Amino acid sequence: MATTLDKVDVVTVGVGWTGGIIAAEAAKAGLKVVGLERGKTRGTEDYQHVHDELKYAVRYELMQDVSKETLTFRNNRDEEALPMRQLGSFLLGNNLGGAGTHWNGQTWRFLPYDFEIRSMTEERYGKEKLKDEQGYQLEDWGITYDELEPYFNTFEKTLGISGEDNPLGGDRSEPYPTPPMLKSKTLKMFEKAATELELHPIMMPSANLSEKYENPDGQTINACQYCAFCERFGCEYGAKSSPEITVIPTAQETDNFELRVHANVTEIITDEDDNSKVSGVKFVDTLTGEEFIQPADVVALTSYVFNNYKLLAVSDIGEQYDPETGKGTLGRNYCYQTHGSATGFFDEQFNTFMGAGSLGMGLDDYNGDNFDHSDLDFLHGGNMAHTQTGARPILSNTVPEGTPSWGEEFKEESIHNYTRAITVAGQGASLPHKENYLSMDETYKDSYGIPLVKLTFNFTEQDEKLVAYLADRAAEIMEKMGAKEVQKSGELGDYDIVPYQSTHNTGGTTMGASKENSVVNNYLQHWDRDNLFVVGAGNFQHNSGYNPTDTVGALAYRCAEGVIKYAKEGGGRLE
Q: What positions does the domain Glucose-methanol-choline oxidoreductase N-terminal occupy (predicted)?
């Protein structure tokens, strides 16, 4: 028998970037908020002297335990989906802060083209360029870049982002809060080569801050030490903006926020008297096994892509997408990401063992619709970048093609090229296809007896052609940088869930202007439940040529505004 707790104004399911932002904003507005986090609490003090690559980068200390909670995977509907028992192409965060703790900090705004991709593509190239007949499902997001710009600005000021203006990006209302990071020698080489090719390189917008900064909420983020332990690690200096040092303490300082850890939500409860609303959530205390019901006037799903989808599906909220008929929106338009790259081998040694998660330079000449696609058989593009995130010795074994994968020759080449090999990579956009989607598995369950999420995904012809194009462009830059040998990335082939590629999963709970093509509106309010909000990268109608976090953060501030407006105005559909 579940114990019913006292009702609150807002409950968030997950306390990372999105849950932390909604908690902070709602609590500052005077609403009583409970944040349910299924992991444990943690903070900067837990990451002192964590320079242990084996523990954190190889054995995934901060990641989700796939023996208890995972997903099943297949390339197509004809295959049997099997559980992912090894974290591979994406690394799902766990505990307070979620993936916002172990991220790199690369904080790009999506382009204006991203939010209106269908209408802008049709206007410039004609409807046939959309390839609807080939199963692609491009949709506008129901919000424009200009409408979202103030929320981008708020998120970047909360984090103190270090960066510089992007001549090929959307207009900004204000400059970045802090100056860009320092340029290493290899970044200067990339900048020089790209400029000589008449491209437009800029320093990457970074949540590893170039200087100490106090944000508008009074939280302090320290200056980056360039220690090279960012991705897969928590920052021991408090210099990488994360939820635990920004929005979560802001919420806690209001006295209107209660954080409840070890609280795994298993169901969203629809109101018995009004099925257009939810009444709260059911959760399990992961330490004691006790069940609780947390009533709330507003429920906000703020966990990772897969879990937001899963809670809607198991709670029977929304219509599951069916690839056979095209009906339904829940689970629709899952997208991932691709990379077309070139690695250069040099005689000179560089200090690549140092770095930061978002120490890099990028350019958008090949991103979005910044170049003419008339004679190209793909859409969109990718941000082209060279980063110096830190070459840690266990996983940094770049060797020339033809080198054996083990043995004496591999060791010699690995050691020789450890600080002599650098890479330029294009991060390719992933566009939605009718055969790529999320559903619930009929066979496998998690440790609480709930069905696992089933991922059906494979790369498409669009992905293959874009990757080849980006690899060619990357090679041009690398050759200009003076490498003695340049190796381009190979053909894409079928998607494999191992090895690691990126943690940039999107779709499944998409946003839009109508219920027919989306799960939530542009306030991230569910079309079928007025007091249910769903926010995260699952809202993306497609993936971009960028990291998703800046856009997720902007949507979270938009959602927080919607939650507060809904609560203060007494409910109803937000317009």
A: 145-333
Question: How many whole angstroms separate alpha carbon 62 and alpha carbon 92?
Answer: 9
Tell me if residue 382 falls in helix, strand or coil: strand
Sign of the C-alpha dihedral computed for residues 523, 528, 533 and 536 taken in this order: negative
Predicted pLDDT of residue 367 = 98
DSSP 265-281: EEEEEEPSS-TTSEEEE
- Could you tell me the CA-to-CA distances from 380 to 130, 429, 442 in Å, in that order? 11, 6, 36
Which residue spans within 323-461 are E strands per DSSP? 338-345, 360-363, 382-387, 421-428, 437-445, 451-456
Interacting residues of 11 by C-beta distance below 8 A, sequence separation 6+? 33, 34, 35, 36, 280, 281, 294, 296, 298, 299, 300
Q: What is the rounded distance in angstroms from the CA atom of residue 299 to the CA atom of residue 529?
A: 10
The four Cα atoms 168, 170, 176, 180 give a dihedral, to 10 degrees, of -20
Nearest-angstrom CA–CA distance, 399 and 410: 7
Which alpha helices (H) appear in 108-144, and where do they start and end? 112-115, 117-125
Q: How far apart are CA 505 and CA 335, in angstroms?
A: 6
Question: Within 13 Å of residue 138, how many CA atoms lie on the same side as its CB?
Answer: 26
User: Looking at the domain 3-43+57-569, which fold is it?
Assistant: FAD/NAD(P)-binding domain (3.50.50)
Instruction: Write out the DSSP string of 314-336.
Output: HTT-SPBP-TTT----BTTT-B-
Residue 208 bridge partners (DSSP):
240
Q: Where in the chain are the domains?
A: 3-43+57-569
Q: Over the stretch 374-390, which tens digit does the pLDDT of each residue have?
A: 999 999 999 999 999 99
Q: CB of 430 within 8 A of CB of 130?
A: no
pLDDT, tens digit, for every residue of 253-268? 999 999 999 999 999 9
Q: Which helix (H) or strand (E) holds 533?
A: strand 532-534
Active site residue 504: yes
Tell me the percentage of the chain whose pLDDT exceeds 90.
93
The CB density around residue 414, as the number of other CB atoms within 10 Å, is: 16
Q: What angle do CA 397, 104, 208 make, to 5 degrees?
A: 120
Burial of 56 per CB tally in 10 Å (0-12, 13-18, 19+): buried
pTM for the complete prediction? 0.97
Cβ(259)–Cβ(423) below 8 Å: no
